[in-house]
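Q: Hi! First time doing this. I have a protein sequence and I read that you can turn it into a structure. Is that right? Here it is:
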Amino acid sequence: MGGDTYKTKVKFGRKKDDITAFYGLGETDGTHSFEKLEHYGVIERLSKKKLFPIATNSGGDYYSISLDENNYGEIYLYYHDLLGKKTKVATDFIEFINNSKSEEIGHVKTMEEREKIAIENGYGDEVEMLRPIWKEQIEEFSKIVQEEVIL
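A: Yes, that's right. Below is the predicted 3D structure, encoded as structure tokens:
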């Protein structure tokens, strides 16, 4: 499986970065599949650098597992736009997952709750315009299933 993550951060050293999705095989959300990465040449490009992509951040950079025998299994953040620069994130996948944390989605505000808040904050005249956006957000969040990663 692969798909979006909700407000997920990974800590490495003094830094934190977001993880927006993990890649997967077979039943994925369609956007975050290894097949799609292969289609766009990402897997081939990274494999030449002895890396295999496992996840992405909001900047389009790739969290990747090293396939190099000198640092096999280490996790790196490969910057797609910085000429191959990479930063070590974890010594292995378990450390990567242990250093990652997602916020709980919790209660998703209903259309009525959102309208009330908008009116209370002086945006009553924009409610009509916001309804389709809110509807889309409510539908999107209702489909999300947060799962605990157990290693």
